[in-house]
């Protein structure tokens, strides 16, 4: 990697770190904010469904803009719309729960535009020899922001009682989004691609022996877990502790463990270890859910959270790196990197929606804590399905420089 590209990679990581910090500051307590207005799991579930639909559409529709025009503007617009979402929440205040679908759509649009552009630029800056390293750094930044963000926002919410604390947190996030947007202007404009192929994700999946078929299936399994766990864990911690500061402490402790595990993974995790590492990570993710079958309280949730943070990189790094490696396997695939990123995200979105719809359907029959716990165990086993369908590709990766 040339020095100029290393500088751009560092700047991209800085922008990504600020974006993550702003998102974690406000996002950790967003679902709690909604829950305090209306204690309904299905309502939170539908809010997340609206997000995922908007994420998928923004990836697919925004792909043309990112490939044929200025992808940096898409990244900046994603940051700006994130700020706009929290402006809407500040404006609506107690009426927020009555606008779940449009608000979820706005948040999903911001997420889709930002991560579409970010992933494309990330692919262009990195290569197969250093992708695990930079993925490790992204995980490291996510952990650092996860340590600082929730603790600060939890302290602020506890310090200013009522809705004032939430308003202060949302305003702080707005300011950080603004800094990230300004910093993004230091990222160079990337070369434009050829014409955007609207149906290429579908065509790739219908090609015989396409390596993207097992990868897409693996991403669906990943999404099944993510769709529900992304909001449910934080809610359960708050319900168990009944204090925002406890949720901040939970996020601080789990993120501190994640900081160490992502650092270690980014430094020592090599492509040849992906097959065994992903299997071990998948099994451990299931194992650390088992304490919840005994009792759901702050302690057992913390055990689950720390264990998950410790082993998640073993699962996530192979998933991330394998899909990105496939985008660079040939000049043809590299030229279609936007469409392939769209394929990756649509696969994740499909899994997330499936997991969310299962969650909503089951809870429409029973909202008992036992039902929720058993459902978490079932959905939490989905990463093992990822390993089963992608193990053939992983086993073919014998060395760091070998390509699929």
UniProtKB/TrEMBL annotation:
It is a multi-pass membrane protein. Pfam families: MFS_1. It comes from the Bacteria. Keywords: Membrane, Transmembrane, Transmembrane helix. The keyword Transmembrane applies. It is found in: Cell membrane. The chain crosses the membrane at residues 12-35, 41-62, 74-93, 99-122, 134-153, 165-187, 215-241, 247-265, 277-294, 300-320, 341-363, 369-390. Its main location: membrane. The keyword Transmembrane helix applies. PANTHER family: INTEGRAL MEMBRANE TRANSPORT PROTEIN-RELATED, MAJOR FACILITATOR SUPERFAMILY (MFS) PROFILE DOMAIN-CONTAINING PROTEIN. This is MFS transporter. The lineage of its organism: Bacteria, Bacillati, Bacillota, Bacilli, Bacillales.
